[in-house]
């Protein structure tokens, strides 16, 4: 169940509570998000474990929000809007869709799921969880 706003808007950052960490996705509309999932495990983001932090590659996927969230709690969290200006929504979505099905480098400290979605929203990757 959603916390805060229950109806995300295109371009919103979605924060998903997972055991031991937060997974991040970008809402693109019609119930879909774009997010990165580990390539090494071959598992959907729903099954991502903390061992995935050691993976070096990720794949960008467009998936239903409800599939990515599973039974975990989630919220819209555009927390960086206080210090950064979001790109126009059309630009955010356009950039996000260019990445679908691409393999990208992954590093828990410098190129994690939060870095990826904040790069799409603001043009700069940011993560406070590391």
Automatic annotation (TrEMBL):
Pfam families: LRAT
Membrane-spanning residues: none
The keyword Transferase is annotated on this UniProt entry: yes
Gene Ontology MF, one: phospholipase A1 activity
Keyword Magnesium appears in the UniProt entry: no
Record domain LRAT: where: 13-129
Lineage top rank: taxon: Eukaryota
Keywords for the protein's UniProt record, in alphabetical order: Hydrolase, Lipid metabolism, Transferase
Family per record: Belongs to the H-rev107 family.
PANTHER family: HRAS-LIKE SUPPRESSOR - RELATED, PHOSPHOLIPASE A AND ACYLTRANSFERASE 1
Name of the protein this chain belongs to: HRSL1 enzyme
Species lineage: Eukaryota, Metazoa, Chordata, Craniata, Vertebrata
């Amino acid at each position: 169940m959603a916390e805060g706003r229950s109806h995300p808007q295109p371009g919103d950052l979605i924060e998903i509570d997972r055991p031991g960490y937060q997974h991040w996705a970008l809402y693109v509309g019609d119930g879909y998000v774009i997010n990165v999932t580990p390539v090494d495990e071959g598992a959907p983001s729903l099954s991502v474990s903390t061992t995935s932090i050691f993976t070096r590659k990720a794949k960008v996927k467009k998936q239903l929000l409800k599939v990515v969230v599973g039974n975990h709690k989630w919220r819209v969290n555009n927390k960086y809007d206080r210090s950064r200006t979001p790109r126009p929504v059309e630009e955010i979505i356009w950039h996000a869709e260019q990445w679908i099905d691409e393999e990208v480098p992954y590093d828990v400290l410098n190129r994690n799921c939060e870095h990826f979605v904040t790069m799409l929203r603001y043009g700069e990757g940011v993560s406070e969880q590391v």
